[in-house]
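Input chain follows. Return structure tokens only.
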Amino acid sequence: MLRAAFSLSIIGLAAFGVAMLSNRAVADGKKDSAADKGTIAGILIQREKQTLLVRADGDEEPVKYLLPEKADPKMAAALKGLFTVQRVRITYQTVGDTRQVTGLVRFPGKANGVITGKVIAVHDNFWVEVKPSKGPPEGFAAGLPDKSRPIIETLKTLQKDDKVTIRYYTDFERHRILSIKKGDGK
């Protein structure tokens, strides 16, 4: 009995020491390096000169990622053909409150097809994020305005969680909608 109490005391002291060292590291401003880095895959929502706004797969809200002031040749090539609606994989490092991009890969996606899924969001009545029953979310954009009026009118009526079926093709920029139908047959 005395031996068990002594063992518990030693274990308790060890746990207290670990907790104190962890708190000291946080107080000194040091973080676990694994928490400072990450990789996400998602849809590019918005691109600006030095930032990307990306909704990671499974996340409700998009997150802003800061681009490096001078991109290496590999990243510069990936940025050259990067448009909203595209799927991307971003490797980042957290610095303060910002996530700075350290790597970027575009996912080309299937060249054409039909997809059925739930609407995540509609952006500028021009493109829609859809989560299919299987696989990651995808983005689909209308074509030229004068040729896509019926598609744009349908996009204007869509709400989050509406079921849609989209027939699409992929051009040099993104998936383009050939036809779109709401799940209720409209």
